[in-house]
Amino acid sequence: MRAEPLASDIGGFGGSLALVHDWCPSFRGGERVLAELRKVFGAGDIFTLFQFLEPEVLETHFGGAKFHTSAINDWPGMRRFYRHLFPLCPFLIEQFDVTGFDAVISSSAAFARGVITRPDQPHLCYVHSPMRYAWDEQFSYAEQMRMGRLGRLLFSVVLHHMRMWDTRTAHAPDVMVANSNFVRARIRRIYGRDAQVVFPPVEVAPEAFSAEKDDYYVTASFLAPYKRTDLVIRAFNAMPSRRLLVVGEGQQSRALRSIAGPNITFTGFLPRADYLRTVARAQALVFAGCEDFGIALAEAQALGTPLIAFARGGARDIVAPPGAGHEPTGLLFERQEEATLVDAIAAFEADRSRFSADACRERAGRFSTERFHRGIRRAFDRAIDIHRPADRRRRDRSPAQALPAATTSERT
What we know:
Its EC number is 2.4.-.-. This protein is of the alpha/beta class. The protein has helices at 29-41, 55-62, 78-81, 89-93, 138-144, 149-169, 181-191, 229-237, 253-259, 272-280, 295-302, 315-318, 338-350, 357-364, 369-386, 399-402, 408-411, and strands at residues 17-21, 45-48, 67-68, 103-108, 123-127, 175-178, 196-197, 217-220, 244-247, 264-268, 285-287, 307-310, 330-333.
């Protein structure tokens, strides 16, 4: 299999590129990164297990891209049940033949990096997260699925084999890139590998920015248990004088609506322009989950909106809290407890004037598309360099220079 040559000439490389992504059920954070990865190089076929994107999304963000999907993508019911087939996904990803391409970039939160490549084929992996449900969140996922004793046993056996596959394939890419310092630490702990940190690109139209705020708070995410929207709702139930808008839908929609007080409004998913306007005019975006990065959080900063977020995960890369040597752009709270979140909101309101919209927008500049492109180009160049003969490798760059650790300024 051969594909069109890359429009970009990275490190003297002008060959064809395969982009491998876990799955594309909708256009969310991971798919936005996938689209931007393709823009970095100007070309590339996309291999993904399941693809259910709307035609207008395909045209707008992936115009001209050739998609290759798994053999079961078009089976009846796949849109609804594809997630339940995760035990088959390692096998399915290994059925993609990318050996005819000159290089591979995988965009992976689970399976994509397990694609089989040639020994001489450069492979860069952009890691959104190690496989959550196979590692640190195994027990919480089992609890959410409400399985009986036998079901839990079978689930544990499946995950045991998934971990073995995951560990083996973690050493397949030549270079790993993490989307946050949090994910970088997880990669080191789980796989024993280091990774360069390249933050996902976050861009909003300048006209969407707003320094003027209305009298409400907002939380925005897919409504799944690990997002902890339930905690945000309980906190605002305890503060009936504060308005909260909940943006998004998901498996918890009905349950969350049932516990929400009259001061809480559910908007469902909003059109992009309405979503940006809603977040831009909020007093703050409140988030109580642990995100690997959190594109919605970074977008809020770009829109001039402060954050009140749980102090774990990508939020630590995004928020500049008071006393961090920067003009503050939000608050971090240390415990996922209702009282702790209520106290954080009270502290925010007591010192509201410190959190300026301009400071938030400036903070978001570190997540620019330009920086993303530059970081990916550098990492890809390193992957290419690994496969050059020793006498042809770049002499102006050592491995340590090619894969720099995140600087202090990037972490704060």
